[in-house]
Amino acid sequence: MREHPPQTHFSKTHEGRFGSCLEHGAAHAEDHARYSRRDFLARMGLATAGVAFSLGGVPLHAYGRAPMLRQLGLMETERVLVLVQMRGGNDGLNTIIPVNNGIYYQSRPTIAIKKSDAILLDAETGLHPAMQSLQSLWGDGRMAVVHNVGYDRSTRSHFEGTVNWVTARDQGAASSTGWTGRYLADEFFGNGAEPLDHPLAVRVGNAPATLFHSEYGNLGVTFADSQQFERFVRQGGFYDPDDVAATVYGEALSFVRRVTNASFRYVEAVQNAADQAANLSGYPDTNLAENLSVVARLIRGRLGARVFAVSEGGFDTHSNQGGTTGSHANRLGRIADAVTAFLNDLAADGLDRQVLVMTFSEFGRTLRENGSNGTDHGAGAPLMLFGRGLRGDLYGTQSTLQSNALYGGDPRFTTDYRDVYSTVLEDWFGLSTASVAGILGQSFNNMGFVDDKISVAREEAPEPRAFRLDANYPNPFNTTTRITYTLSQGGPVRLRVFDIRGRLMQVLADHPHAPGIYTLEFNGLGLPSGTYLYRLETPSGSQARRMTLVR
Length: 551
Hints:
Elements: H1 26-44, E1 51-55, E2 58-62, H2 67-74, E3 80-86, E4 96-98, H3 102-107, E5 119-120, E6 125-127, H4 135-139, E7 143-150, H5 158-167, E8 201-204, E9 213-214, E10 217-218, E11 221-223, H6 226-235, H7 248-263, H8 267-275, H9 287-300, E12 307-312, H10 327-347, E13 355-360, E14 381-386, E15 394-395, E16 406-407, E17 410-411, E18 415-416, H11 417-428, H12 433-440, E19 467-469, E20 480-487, E21 491-499, E22 504-513, E23 516-523, E24 530-538, E25 541-549
Parallel strand pairs: 3-12, 3-13, 7-15, 7-18, 8-11, 8-12
Antiparallel strand pairs: 1-2, 4-6, 5-6, 7-14, 9-10, 13-14, 16-17, 19-20, 20-23, 21-22, 21-24, 24-25
Helix pairs in contact: 9-10, 11-12
């Protein structure tokens, strides 16, 4: 187990950062203004590489290549991660409540949630009553909570906190790439594979653009909201080429719009996915729920994206936060109702088995309520996960709220947020421990919240006992390469080659085999350069590997 370094206490104020609470006056206003400017740039991708578009002044992006996400596209898995950002710094103590802790109730005389009002998750822990719709997920084992997630040396800055969560960096370290964007860079992109013709990452709303950024650029598409998504599908792009004035200028503008739409490489893939699918159950009338309904359609339409991101704002509750009711309760209710509707929609045809939903927020809030019946910028806070592939339970260590468990007066983190990332990458997406350490910069703890009974389909699965599929040789190859496989049991066998879009290229074998070692030749004459998958199917299971054709 990796030991977390001790955290340093700040001396300027009990919050630890001048500008982190309302009482700091102009410094607080400037802190938020600076965050808003920098966060806008980060969320809109204006500081990153990519092809930019604008609709009504809202920047939109057709991203280039993100190696980590490309590897997800090549893996034999349809698993999807949906990130739900709770923007502003969610009050974790009023979300996942220490219902028997006297310090909690003494520190929050007006906003604390009574035990009798909370939804009990166990004898010590309650859920905010506004999230009542999550009760069915918790009862079915489709919800997990990780206590006190955070990072060392928190500055309580919105901007820096968001950068940490998006990049998985150490606090203060330089990083311009997202943890999901790095996913592929290390392991795949160096082999010269061609870019895909569908996005492997999609943002709907204002989640940070840097999530999908890598040293090679971004791979994804952004929709400002569900309405813009519908216009995009209807128009075949972000712009309507016919909605122009009947003038020479209008004709020129229409031409530019058509060229711009044509240059957006993912139009056809998004349109096809949207046309082939519909939502199978209802959603609440909120922006977050509508944005998640778009995500569900794209998953059901087999767009091929592996990571989606949505967001809900308004969690910076410095004043009039409320307890069982109020602004914070309303926002928690929107999160719960939208996630529940989303999973119910996907469950209608079994797609919820391949989706994991994870919340995150830049930091928690202060232990003590402030003089405005709110809370200020804090440190550690709980994180929630949802899906059928979970071991539903409580993970990590809940703070005692004693002085030795605090950081500048607030709950100290007990779980490094990258422990969660490491578990998702390794157990949900099926990457090796070494690959995960390379992506995150070091090894982190595996928390075990992914249910191993729902297997991870990998491109390079552990070698099965009944058969073995070897790496092709040579690889990369120019025209021909040899594929060898070993069978310890006889029976029907099929060996097929697919392109990266899943289209069948060749059938190399499709007949009964006796036990033994077999070597077949694949001839790529007439095929374009790129990455191809070859898949062996036997009565004992199947396995796939990738090979690269280079002209």
